[in-house]
Amino acid sequence: MSEVDTNIEINQGGKIVFAEDVVATIAYLAAGEVEGVHALIGSTSFSEMLGKKNYTKGVKVEVGSEECACDITIVVKYGYRIQAVAQKVQEEIKNAIETMTGLRVVEVNVNVNSIYFEPEKKEEPAPAPAPAPAPVVEEPEPEPEPAPAPRVK
């Protein structure tokens, strides 16, 4: 993505410039924190193939001089209300970008690409019970031999 002049004027003179990747990263991180979002979808980049994390995957932004627009593609976890998750993503992205950059967010378009199902947990068969210990058979104690009769003379 290219660097775009945002022309945010400051009383002391000068301007602030935001690269599109900066705004896209803010949107990516904000969307990832919303409960019910499993992942963001986008094309695999060369840097990802090298093992680097891509913080703009699934996010496209247009940055103007005072405002920006954002398109994001998400995967929603099964069981969540899709409409509610998408609205929360819009709110979080708008709030994060406006708070961190000062740019006015004119729109956040959320594309729901898929639903994520948790993998089924395979029930493992219960382990076979350990064999019962053999009963302990106590041998009867031998009867004591009778004491010899006293010899009297």
Radius of gyration: 36 Å
Structural class: alpha+beta
Name the overall outline.
Answer: rod-shaped
Strand content: 25-35%
Instruction: Characterize the main sheet.
Output: 4 strands, mixed
Averaged pLDDT, please? 82
Query: From N to C, what is the helix and strand string?
Result: EEHEHEEHE
What are the segments in which pLDDT stays under 50 over at least 5 consecutive residues?
none
- Percent helix range: 10-25%
Can you give a write-up of this model?
- This protein has 153 residues and is α+β, with helices and mostly antiparallel strands.
- It contains three helices and six strands, in the order ββαβαββαβ.
Short description:
With 153 residues, this protein is of the alpha+beta class. It has helices at residues 20-32, 46-49, 82-101; strands spanning 3-9, 15-19, 37-40, 59-63, 67-77, 104-116.
